[in-house]
Amino acid sequence: MMVRNKELQVAALKNGTAIDHIPSEYLFKVVSLLGIEHLSTRVTIGYNLDSKKMGTKGIIKIADKFFEEDEINRISLIAPSVNLNIIKDFEVIEKKQVNLPDELYGLVKCNNPKCITNNEPMQTRFHVIDKDNVTLRCHYCEMKIKKEEIELL
Amino acid sequence: MNTKSLVSIVDFSKDDILRLIGTAECFERNPNRGLLEGKVCATLFFEPSTRTRLSFETAINRLGGRIIGFSDAATTSSSKGETLKDTIMMVSNYADLIIMRHYLEGAARYASEVTDIPIINAGDGANQHPSQTMLDIYSIYKTQGRLDNLQITVVGDLKYGRTVHSLIVGMSHFNPTFHFVAPEELKIPELYKHFCETNGIRYHEHTEFSEEVINLSDILYMTRVQRERFTDLIEYEKVKNVYVLRNNMLSHSKDNLKILHPLPRINEIANDVDNNPKAYYIEQARNGVFARQAIICDALGIEVVSG
User: Fold this and answer.
1) Distance, in angstroms, between A127 CA and closest chain B CA?
2) Are B135 and B281 found together in one domain?
């Protein structure tokens, strides 16, 4: 249930999805990863909001939009602790966590300059070989990338 | 995406490796068979590699197949900026099988995804060279009569040497014990140590190339220490003559010891080793033709009957 007696930092949503606890520095990356700029429904974006847990955070509230699993999992690389609230009639009817998928398509750049993906017009593809430590392996050149080395496209 | 391609040694299970060894043995007994009659094989060498190309082309010729292709990308449309995808799709119209060498890592995997005809990776940059690994494993099998429970010592450039990395993966099915002998700058990457640990493979690291380690080995796999791998040339000068095998170092080695080298060698095996019956590197290259015949038939789904 939503806490009603607290002042909301972003206007309430009737129906749709509220994405909470986005690290501020990644807010606009999340916006772009989810393709929110292409939506025609009403979107409220909160940036640098106060957060007890995180210091500052970002929130995105999207009216009348319910994401598919694989759509939303795209953001798990940069914002693994994000909460998704599915809202119907001003009530949170479901809370979701993001999960790192087994494979990532077109999301991460391969750090190997001699990798085919950096030399052909093609999509990158990575296997997530360690979900806890976020270690990826390029499907093509087989090079492993650690979390701190990940560069998003 | 096609499943008959051979891109990486990790694509091969233990059963695949054993099956290919069996097929390679058939070809060694009788290498000249018309199994590729009426087939066209493309050898696309975007980077020159005479040794590998000759080995593959010999394999195809002995099987009665025809060859199209190029030995250097400078003479092809890729030098005009054609994408790899276009080159592969174009050649797929002509050939039944593509054998390719490329300077970019992952090129063969990508090629296997844009065509339905099988791709055999003949080396993609520093990444994979699975037919070399198959011939190495076949050579180990032939000289030892088995693959299980062997003491394998690899010497030289273990950091960049892709043949070493693939050998570790390929032999991992057979409970080996590895001895990694390398200078500090070229020691085995953490990644492969981790691979050994997660697969329950015993390994020992040495910086000294001693008789002690030679004497407990069944296989001595030598590699070249290349000058261009060193950031510090003083370091290179220090080690360049340290990881050299000389005949007098072999006097107390096991009777079944065999010395392997992916070739070409520079000075890491002294010439006086060549006449030692434990030297196997030249025959090893000969095994490459049989291993490649087996790989080609496997990729094309051609059954090879023994005899």
Assistant:
1) 14
2) yes
Is B257 found in the same domain as B195? yes
B110 vs A112, A120, A142: nearest CB: A120
Q: Exactly one of B75, B80, B198, B231 is catalytic; which is it?
A: B80
When scoring A125, A140, A146 by the number of chain B Cβ atoms within 10 A, the one with the most, hence best to mutate, is A140
Tell me the HSE value of B258 on the side-chain side, using a 13 A CA sphere: 19
Beta-carbon separation of B127 and A141 below 8 A: yes
The tally of domains found in chain A comes to 2
Q: pLDDT digit of tens for each residue in chain B (307 aa)?
A: 456 999 999 999 999 999 999 999 999 999 999 999 999 999 999 999 999 999 999 999 999 999 999 998 876 666 678 899 999 999 999 999 999 999 999 999 999 999 999 999 999 988 999 999 999 999 999 999 999 999 999 999 998 888 999 999 999 999 999 999 999 989 999 989 999 999 999 999 999 999 999 999 999 999 998 887 777 888 888 888 889 999 999 999 999 999 999 988 888 999 999 999 999 999 999 999 999 999 999 999 999 988 6
Q: Please check whether residue B307 lies inside any domain of the structure.
A: no
Would you call B102 a catalytic residue per the annotation?
no
Q: Judged by CB atoms within 8 Å, which residues 120-179 of B form the interface with A? A: 124-128
Residues of B in contact with A117 (CB under 8 A): 106, 110
Residues A21 and A93 in one domain: yes
State the complex-level ipTM: 0.86
- My answer on whether A51 and A90 are in the same domain is yes
Which residue range forms the structural domain that includes residue A67?
16-97
